[in-house]
Specification:
This protein is mostly helical. It is built from 3 helices and 2 strands, in the order αααββ.
Length: 131
Amino acid sequence: MKKLFFLASVSTAILTGCGQKESAPPAPPTPPPAPAPKAEAPPAKPTGGSVLTAPVDYLATAANAKKTADAKIEIAALSQQIQLHFAQEGRYPKDLNELVTSKYMKSLPTPPFGFKFAYDAAKGEVKLVNQ
């Protein structure tokens, strides 16, 4: 049994250790790649996300949302009265003041500060535009 073990060990050593390894000539060293130019990002602008200004930012956003909602309601009311005028008179009003003079509205709504109503008499459309 010792002979069998010895013979197996020697044959394994011969098979694994006798092979010649060819060594390739070392490759010439390649220079390291040039560093990419660094693009400088513009400084980030503050978005008002400070804990100290959060209540003020919230109130400003709520006020702007209210102005927008009020303007949409006023435009919808004007459009409804324009369509009623068209249904009864067979034509669109010449201007928005005609809705008041022909008793479709008591008075024209006031547009938000910095805006005005733009009325297209040919199409019967009213829009809110900057002054």
